[in-house]
Amino acid sequence: MTITSFHPPQRTLMGPGPSDVHPRITEALARPTIGHLDPEFIRMMDELKSLIQYAFKTSNRLTLPISAPGSAGMEACFANLVEEGDKVIVCINGVFGGRMKENVIRMGGTAITVESDWGRAVDPKAVEETLNAHPDAKILAFVHAETSTGARSDAKTLCKLAREHNCLTIVDTVTSLAGSELQVDEWGVDAVYSGSQKCLSCVPGLSPVSFSEAAIEKIQARKTPVRSWFLDMSLIMGYWGGDGKRAYHHTAPVNQLYALHESLCLLQEEGLENSWMRHQLHHQALVAGLAAMGLEMLVPEEERLAQLNAVVIPEGVDDLAVRQQLLAEYNLEIGAGLGAFAGKVWRIGLMGYAANQTNVLNCLSALESALLRQGHTFTPGEAVKAAVSVYQ
User: Fold this and answer.
1) pTM above threshold 0.85
2) pLDDT tens digits for the chain (392 residues)?
3) Strand, helix or coil for residue 213
4) Are strands 12-13 and 332-333 parallel, antiparallel or unpaired?
5) Among 110, 81, 108, 109, CA closest to 191
6) Which residues contact 225 (CB under 8 A, 6 or more apart)?
C-alpha cells in the first residue's frame, strides 16, 4: 500500500484541548526554519521570555518554554524541586492532582494528600489543617484549573497558606493561563507550569514554566542531581539564560517556538485582562443556552472555570452517541468525562481563539439537534435565544 500525504479534516475544537489554532499561528509555523543558535533566533528567544513573563504576570528570571507538552512542564517543576525524602502536600480534586502525586513519588518524595470532591475547588481549610499537621512539609502542590472537572481553586489563598507555613508552591496552570486571572508574583507562586494548546490557541507541544528566586535557591541547594537530565533547570538555563552566551543543551523546536511567540503577541495585543473577560463573557452565554435546554453545570458558579465547562449529561442520553453526532455532522468536538465522571459529563471548552460568539451559538444549535434525537425534551430554539440575550 502506498501511503499518501495526510490531510486532516477541518474541526471546531471545543473540547478540553487542544483548542482551535489562530491562523496567524499556523502561518508562523510555516516560516523558514533557522538554527537554534542563530543570532536572530536568540533575539526571538529573549522576546519570548518577556512575553511569557507578561502572560504569567511575573518578573522571574527563570522563565522559559520547556520543549515538550504541559506534562513535561509538570515534571520539570517536581524533578527540580523535590529531593529524596521531601514531604510534599498534594491537593487532589481531579485527574491532574493525581498526576502531581505520582510525580512526587517518582522523585523520591513523600506525598501527603488533601482530597477534595471532584467538581469542587480545593478546600483551603483542609489544606491549612494538613499544613499544621505536617510542619516539616517543604512544598504545597495544587491544580489551579482542574481540566478534568472544570473547577477553579483559589490559588491566591492557597499560596498565602503555603508562605505562612514556609512551604514553596508548585501550581498547575495548564488550563488557566490566559483564560483566568493568574498573578504569579502578586500571589507568591514559586513554580508554575502551563501548556501551549489551551487558552494560548497555539499548537500542542510546549510548556511555559516560571520559577521564583526562592525556588531557584532550592534548586541550587540540592544535595543530589536532578533525576531528569533533559529537564534539569541548571542545564537548560545555559541555553535560555539571556546573558549573551548560549550553551547548547538540545535542539529547540524552532518552528513551534515561532508559533508560541506569535500566540503571545496576539495575547499582548488583546490585553491579558481583556482575554480573561472575553472567556467569561462567552462562558456566560454558553451557560445561559445550556440552561435553556434543561442542562445543569457540574461545578458551582463561584468555583467554575469559564474556559472548561463540565455539563451534566441528562438521564437517558447516550454520551458517546451525542459526541459522535456532533463530530460526524457538525465537525464539532466536545470532550468526554474522565475518571469517575466518564459517561456522566461533557466537557465543553471555550479556550483562546475558540472562545467566540460563533462557536458558542453553533455549539448550542448542534447540541440541540443531538439532544432532540435522543428524546430529551425542551423548547427548540430557546438555547440560542438565551445566549444571544447575554451578548445583547
Assistant:
1) yes
2) 999 999 999 999 999 999 999 999 999 999 999 999 999 999 999 999 999 999 999 999 999 999 999 999 999 999 999 999 999 999 999 999 999 999 999 999 999 999 999 999 999 999 999 999 999 999 999 999 999 999 999 999 999 999 999 999 999 999 999 999 999 999 999 999 999 999 999 999 999 999 999 999 999 999 999 999 999 999 988 888 755 578 889 999 999 999 999 999 999 999 999 999 999 999 999 999 999 999 999 999 999 999 999 999 999 999 999 999 999 999 999 999 998 899 999 999 999 999 999 999 999 999 999 999 999 999 999 999 999 999 99
3) helix
4) parallel
5) 81
6) 232
Task: Tell which residue, 145, 117, 127, 154, has the closest CA to residue 339.
Answer: 117
DSSP letters of 126-143? Answer: HHHHHHHH-TT--EEEEE
| Grid coordinates given for 72 | 513535561
What residue type is assigned to position 59 of the chain?
S
- The neighbour count for residue 359, using CB atoms within 10 Å, is 21
Q: Where do the DSSP E strands lie in the chain? A: 12-13, 62-66, 87-92, 110-115, 139-143, 145-146, 151-152, 168-172, 191-193, 207-211, 308-312, 332-333, 335-336, 345-349
User: CA dihedral in degrees (374, 376, 380, 385; nearest 10)?
Assistant: -110
Q: Return phi, psi of residue 389, to 5°.
A: -65, -30
CB 228 within 8 A of CB 76: yes
| 271-305 burial code (b ≥16 CB/10 A, e <16) | ebeebbebbbbbbebbbbbbebbebebbbeeebbb
